[in-house]
Amino acid sequence: MQEEEPRMDPQDEVLAVVVVNLEEQMNRHRQQTPDRGTYTMSAFPDVLVEIDDSIQCRLPKLASFGPYHRDKQHLRPFEEHKRTFLAQFLHRTGIPERDQFFSSEELRELKETTKRCYPQQVMPSDDDDLVNMMLLDGCFMVELFRQYEEGRDDWPWSVPTLIADLLKLENQLPFFIVEKLFALSNIGQRATISTLPNLAWRFLKQVFYSTSNVVNSQIQNPKHLLDLFRSSLLPSTEEDPQQRNQSLLKYAIQSVKHLRNSGITVRQKTAKSLLEIEFRKVQLPPLALKIPPFPINDCTSTILVNCVALEQCSPVKDKHFTSYVCFMHYLVKEPEDVKFLRSVDIIKGPSQDEMRFINMLNNLGLNFSYSARGCYLWKQLREIHSYYNSCWASIRRNFVNYNSIMLYCSIIQIVVAILGWFISGN
């Protein structure tokens, strides 16, 4: 954008329109930006720091994004990949230099808005350093999503490890920065392939079970990639008026083993999100608890922990992942529970990670609890609790728990008596 030139070529005209749109977006974001005391890029909550494997779930292994962990020695080699992707991003947009992305006024607004997103103690002291970090990280993300959509995925790193890093709470970049750079990446393109949230979602969901290729249309203005990912997995359920009338009493449910002994069948459910747990009282077979499948691996633990961490330091009312983790904490108590869930294809992944997964659920479940009021699983909790404490369930449990040796002996006596009767008759 050279003001001394009387004429503008078509690409410059497109760039001018994009700049105007970016300025409007920035003005809207500035109006929605919280006070300096409330940060959209939060630190890992203290209540989760002490749990086992919290360091693994909290600290990036491969790449840092944003200011929290940018100086870690083991993450510096990945910076070279970011610079490579920056060059590819510049080639895609046709903009020769990164400094031409925004005007000086836009950069000043960008810096001030970004500073309000992070605690001051983690921010770079130099503003130019801040801008370099945000543009380098943001261009890498946009080019990564673009290349994946174009079928280019022969990268020299572990994709699951990178996705896990992109979804760590302290490794987030303000989404409005990535959106601005995504808009620039559309320059020179014949048509926009898709929206940024959809591109990001299709890349991130590789390590998590989901049948949906499109982000929930109700998601608006995500704070960052973790916020987008979490919101995309929320079930499309509305609050029932009865839920508001529930007491704060916590419905305690039993493990998979005890539920099965009481007559409840546990089965796999095909769903768009792992959060869509269902309990049906009338069907064949009756009393079926249906759970969507989920993998047991490092990414699963990292995503669950960080989604819970986001809910704990966020003002969101519905803490779905916290409720889900507490629910699974009660269901999965011992390896026998995991073994059964694996046999019905609810749990997938290496068996050597089973105990680690149980410990992770137990650690999270002990730190948090749920009540019927405010829990999206309140109907399932109430109905399972009601059935488990019924007379019929008690009879089933007593029958199953009857002394096995005496039961087998009785069966053997009956079989021997029948055989003896046949033999004597012959």
UniProtKB/TrEMBL annotation:
The organism's taxonomic lineage, starting at the top: Eukaryota, Viridiplantae, Streptophyta, Embryophyta, Tracheophyta
Organism: Durio zibethinus (Durian)
Residues spanning the membrane: 405-423
Pfam families assigned to the protein according to its UniProt record, in alphabetical order: DUF247
UniProt keyword terms in alphabetical order: Membrane, Transmembrane, Transmembrane helix
UniProt entry tagged with the keyword Transmembrane: yes
Designated name of the protein: UPF0481 protein At3g47200-like
